[in-house]
Write a structure and sequence with these properties.
Immunoglobulin-like; 3 domains; Oligo-1,6-glucosidase, domain 2; 22 helices; 36% helix; five-stranded antiparallel β-sheet; eight-stranded parallel β-barrel; TIM Barrel; binds alpha-D-glucopyranose; alpha/beta; globular
Length: 664
């Protein structure tokens, strides 16, 4: 290998040979100069062993960045400048703007295609969502394609959904309305019908090296001996025999999703080019799909390895040079302590946003048990984030609910981990006597007893059962539970995220069973179509759809102007004497900014009370419940010092400033 030059010398070389062209933008060059060391350093750390000429490789990356920036549309560059300026002025980054809320949907199920998308925007505006995540809309094989997560062309658009021009226009339309577009970068794997995989099957060495290929089963198994399985029921193992290659290929997810070998610098360059091109189409947030899996090492579980973090850092440093308005969302559904590592903003940043998967599971835990100890204990220090980063807080998404949270916390809450998990699985699959839930087990593994849970928010909250039984009181309770979970996602921390269909209280959709391409993946039961009739009912008073839609919209509207509900405003979980309540104190980031808010929630069907005297002194007196209205008159009873909480009720109690002692 040729010895690498120092980053400074290399930068000087690049600038003198290419950078000082009249087209070079001074802002670009400044950003480039600032990040060049980090980029060169990360490239060497990750790829030195596989590079014959590291300087040439770094210069190639530099050319890629300059090219991408040169073709970045003017309006996006103007947006970059605004986003950079707001941080320079000391304000929070654009994606942490107070009041933002997110929505995620499969385009075909949401609006048919890109042409129908525009017509659905008033619905999103009525809801109050401003970040719209469209799930993969790229070309993918017919049949089972894992909901588009088996991508066969990262730069195309699935012709059933529209064209690249439609995508660009959708982004423009969102921007005109003050909304943002999020999209996936499915970077851990591609479809086995992607041209890279096809070329590998044709015997092209260059492309065979894009994947993890093993000559025989023993070699594959040796490599993957500590790798857990993602889909043990339908895609057991982590390797697939590919006759055309006469070899085994690593396929951590499905057999048709080939893991890319990120230790190959060519894979990095390909993906970087794709990332920058997607950014140039107007995407504001890239969701890094399955990010913990990016790097593999023999004998490890091949998750969360340090190099996976280095790749994200390198991609982010490059994006910050060529498309600085872009944010990364980590899809890291792992232990809380591991998730936060993807958001660690050290000197070189990684992701800016992540799904608050731990909070999501804990909400469902509390709803099934009616007890909040696990939730209250887990939702603390270790989920606190570095400045400039934020959580997406949600009740449901398109995936299953996994129960992979901290056993220690379950023990400390007085439960036995194994039995507790079993209870939750039985409860949400409706087997537990008295359960209101109608979900199903996903990926049940008889060897370990593990499973995850599928089902829409509404069905897991009891709506499906209540409607079927024609039980009006049970319908009311189910709606309250749906509100409770969404209300907490809107107020505990982060940016609330609503999954398409949940805003209408849609129950499980069993049409998936009729489609052979979907029939072995019951996650489709909770990915309903946004049925126009349900949408219409959401505009008619007193229907379930309108109650849920208006309820969630109200949360999103009310929180917008509350400084204590800014996504990155501090929170503190208070110890509740009553084990069925959650109490969380939100404080505005600037001490001078108005009231602190006590979020109080009752996880049972019985009325309960928050006794103010039992709360820490100095909290301030309860002044007003921001959520109280004619239907739920104020819950404050100042005379008794108690706050009454009805069944599954949520209150956002503004606290009057604590009285100051004389002379203080
Ligand atoms: C992510 C997606 C999930 C998909 C998997 C494989 O976890 O959320 O739906 O199955 O990646 O791409």
């Amino acid at each position: 290998m040729v010895q690498p030059s120092s980053p400074r010398a290399l930068l000087a070389r690049w600038l003198s040979s290419r950078g000082n062209t009249p087209r070079a933008d001074p802002a670009f060059l400044a950003r480039f100069g600032y990040r060049f060391d980090a980029i060169a350093d990360l490239v060497l750390r990750l790829y030195a062993p596989r590079l014959d000429d590291p300087d040439a490789f770094v210069l190639r990356v530099a050319d890629l960045l300059a090219g991408a920036h040169a073709s970045r549309p003017t309006e996006l560059r103007a947006g970059d400048a605004e986003r950079e300026a707001r941080v320079a002025e000391g304000r929070e980054p654009w994606f942490l703007e107070p009041g933002l809320a997110a929505y995620m949907a499969y385009l075909d199920r949401f609006s048919g295609d890109f042409r129908g998308f525009r017509e659905r925007l008033p619905h999103l505006e009525r809801l109050g969502a401003r970040i719209v995540h469209l799930m993969p809309f790229f070309p993918c094989p017919a049949g089972n394609n894992d909901g588009g997560y088996a991508v066969s062309d990262y730069l195309g658009v699935d012709p059933r959904l529209g064209t690249v021009a439609d995508l660009v226009e959708a982004a423009r339309e969102l921007h005109r309305r003050g909304l943002y577009l999020a999209a996936d970068l499915v970077l851990n794997h591609c479809s086995d019908e992607h041209p890279w995989a096809l070329a590998a099957k044709r015997g092209e060495r260059r492309y065979r090296d894009y994947f993890h290929v093993f000559p025989d089963r023993a070699a594959a198994e040796r490599y993957g001996r500590a790798m857990p399985e993602v889909f043990p029921e339908t895609a057991p193992g982590n390797f697939t025999w590919v006759p055309e290659l006469d070899a085994w290929v690593m396929t951590v997810f499905h057999r048709f999703q080939w893991d890319l070998d990120w230790s190959n610098p060519e894979v990095f360059v390909e993906m970087l080019g794709i990332l920058l091109e997607l950014a140039n189409r107007g995407i504001d947030i890239l969701r890094l799909d399955a990010v913990p899996y990016l790097w593999k090492r023999e004998g490890t579980d091949c998750r969360n390895l340090d190099e996976a973090h280095d790749i994200v850092r390198l991609l982010k440093a490059c994006a910050d040079v060529a498309a600085p308005g872009l944010a990364f969302l980590a899809e890291a559904i792992v232990q809380p302590s591991e998730i936060v590592r993807y958001l660690d903003s050290g000197r070189v940043e990684e992701c800016q946003l992540a799904y608050h998967a731990s909070l999501m599971v804990l909400l469902w835990d509390a709803l099934a048990t009616g007890k909040t100890a696990v939730l209250s204990r887990s939702f603390g220090e270790e989920t606190r984030l570095a400045p400039g980063t934020g959580w997406l807080s949600y009740a449901r998404c398109h995936d299953d609910i996994g129960l992979g949270y901290d056993e220690e916390k379950i023990l400390r809450a007085g439960f036995t981990p194994r039995a507790h998990r079993r209870f939750l699985l039985d409860f949400y699959s409706g087997r537990y006597p008295g359960s209101f839930a109608r979900g199903r087990l996903f990926m049940e593994d008889p060897r370990t007893g593990d499973a995850r849970i599928s089902g829409t928010c509404a069905s897991l909250c009891g709506l499906e059962k209540a409607l079927e039984e024609g039980d009006g009181a049970a319908v009311d309770l189910a709606v309250k539970r749906i509100m409770l979970l969404h209300g907490l996602a809107a107020s505990l921390t982060g940016i609330p995220l609503v999954f398409s269909g949940d805003e209408l209280g849609l129950v499980n959709d069993f049409s998936w069973l009729d489609d052979p391409a979907l029939a072995d993946d019951n996650r489709w039961m909770h990915r309903p179509r946004l049925d126009p009739e349900a949408l219409a009912r959401s505009e008619v008073a007193d229907t379930v759809e309108s109650r849920v839609m208006n309820g969630i919209a109200r949360f999103l509207r009310l929180r917008k102007d509350v400084p204590a509900f800014a996504p990155d405003a501090p929170f503190e979980v208070l110890h509740a004497q009553d084990e069925h309540l959650v109490l969380c104190l939100r404080s505005p980031k600037e001490a001078a900014a108005k009231a602190r808010i006590l979020v109080a929630a009752n996880f049972t069907a019985k009325s309960r009370a928050v006794r103010f005297q039992e709360l820490p002194a100095g909290l301030g007196a309860p002044a007003r419940d921001l959520l109280a209205d004619e239907d739920a008159p104020s819950v404050l009873e100042p005379g008794t010092g108690e706050i009454a909480l009805g069944p599954y009720a949520l209150a956002w109690i503004a606290l009057a400033a604590p009285e100051r002692k004389a002379g203080a």
